[in-house]
Amino acid sequence: MSPAGGEAASPPERAPIFSARLQALLQDILRAQAPNAGRFCGNCYNPLAPSAGPSTALRTGAGQAPEEECVHCGLSTAQRPPVRQIPPEVFAMVRAQRLREAIPVRSLAWGGLGAGLALALFLMVVLPFWWNVAAFAVSLGASYVAAANIANWLGDALGYRWGQRVLEKRWGAFVARRDPTRET
User: Fold this and answer.
1) What's the pLDDT at 49?
2) 3-state secondary structure the chain
3) For labeling, which of 102, 121, 170, 182 is most exposed (least CB within 10 Å)?
4) Could you tell me which residues come within 8 angstroms of residue 17 by beta carbon, excluding any fewer than 6 positions away?
5) What's the CA gap between 86 and 69, in Å, rounded?
6) Quick one: average pLDDT of 117-132?
7) Contact predicate 54/26, CB 8 Å
8) How high is the pLDDT of residue 118?
């Protein structure tokens, strides 16, 4: 279905570098809740189903393990053999992405709280005693709510985009080192 006259088609969204399944596994491994062992796509490191082993190949008469395709990147195990561990560089990419995502959120939250505290102190100085106590409490409470909402709304959006750019850049460099003959 094409867009109505004059409307521009929205650009197709790019597939994420890591699958949702791999991202969840990476978080579990980083928290030491899962081992860095298994069967992973040799290209994108998406978890693959455990291999049936050589006995399956012998029973089917194929003489080798059956070919399997990664559901995330689409490469078969014949094109790129599976790996048993996720490389340490992938974990470094995830850590760098998470750090970059957190910087805008924390900066906006602490900046908002600092501005609220400055406003509360200013109001304490210029208002009479009983008014300044009330103004101090109200301005601190309002600045806390405002800082949290701005950090969650604007900080999350900025942080996510910044983290994705860092991940894409590091993934591109990693793939270029891993596959020097491959065009990116």
Assistant:
1) 86
2) CCCCCCCCCCCCCCCCCCCHHHHHHHHHHHCCCCCCCCCECCCCCCECCCCCCHHHHHHHCCCCCCCCECCCCCCECCCCCCECCCCHHHHHHHHHHHHHHHHHHHHHHHHHHHHHHHHHHHHHHHCCHHHHHHHHHHHHHHHHHHHHHHHHHHHHHHHHHHHHHHHHHHHHHHHHHHCCCCCC
3) 182
4) 44, 167, 168, 171
5) 18
6) 85
7) no
8) 92
Whether 152 and 109 have beta carbons less than 8 Å apart is answered as no
Token match 């900046």: residue? 111
| CA atoms of 71 and 145, how far apart (whole Å) | 43
Rounded-to-integer distance, Cα 173 and Cα 164, Å: 14
For the segment 32-70, what is each residue's pLDDT rounded down to a tens digit?
A: 999 999 999 999 999 998 865 554 444 444 545 567 899
What are the boundaries of each domain within the chain?
A: 15-86, 87-184
